[in-house]
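Tutorial sheet, problem 5. The two components below are modelled jointly, 316 residues in total.
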Amino acid sequence: MTDVTTREFEVGATVPPFVRQAGLHAWNRYAAVNYEFVDIHMDDEAGKAAGMPGAFGMGNLIWAWMHCAVEQWVGERGVLEHLECRFKQPALKGDTITITGTVTGRTTADDGSTVLELELWSENQTGTKTAPGTARVRLVA
Amino acid sequence: MSELGLVRPDMAAIVGQPYGVTHSYPVSASDIRRWAIAVYYPEAPPAHYLDPDAEAAGRLVAPLDISVFAWAAARTEPDERAFEVDAKYTAVGAMEQKLGVQPPDLFRALNGGMFVDYTGVRIRPGDVIRSETVIAQYQEKESRLGRMLVTDFATTWTNQAGERIKTSTMSLIRY
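Model answer (structure tokens):
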């Protein structure tokens, strides 16, 4: 049972930061499961040819980390129903990427369950939002 | 013809028609564990992914974002109306040719974002996933870069029982 009165799910609450280091160790592992062996994610010269300072990370991995952030926070107390984001800036080697967010809305659905609306985003170590998004989570009553 | 002239009548006519129907190999417990380990690296994924008893107990479910088609598909159904187009169209993500329609003459592209709706049906070991894609909608926009065509490609996964798992939509901006 979920105690939906808990303060961590109130409007204004923070989605606990999910922090990862961008770089080949993370990218190679993701490439290996997602068959994403693309030069721009492996080779600095290819990254430079694409207009970046070097190799850069996959948008799909940021997407995955957004899922992880919600899963680590909610666990079995709820389910992610909707997620959307825009990739504005890729992660570069050595970047510290933080997925975090805010509860922006909280309603009670017809079936009595609690539905949370979130702003959820990826930001780098400068505080730049590299992938702003939104999400909806339904708490399991 | 549409207001800005980017959506021809034959393009409008293929909205909602499925293409790219693909069937996965059965998902394995190892597929699920490896995905979870990779995306949570360098920390361990939540304990249930690594619980050796979870599969037998029916508690092992895949991360929501898993791709079960990344390395290979078991079967892809032919798109009967598909025809070859110049690589300059496919380089910007054109898919109209799979439905027998000439893509628009727009050769620059941006990823306009993505969104997904999950139904709550989870992927479990042994599941065989069917994927199909539709052009969900075309929208036209005027921007500082000129006339833009926003195409939403919506891909729906269902399991072997016909239960819908998710619909994920990618917005492709061509201009």
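Marking note: The domain at 7-139 of chain A is CATH 3.10.129.10 (Thiol Ester Dehydrase; Chain A). Full credit if you identified this.
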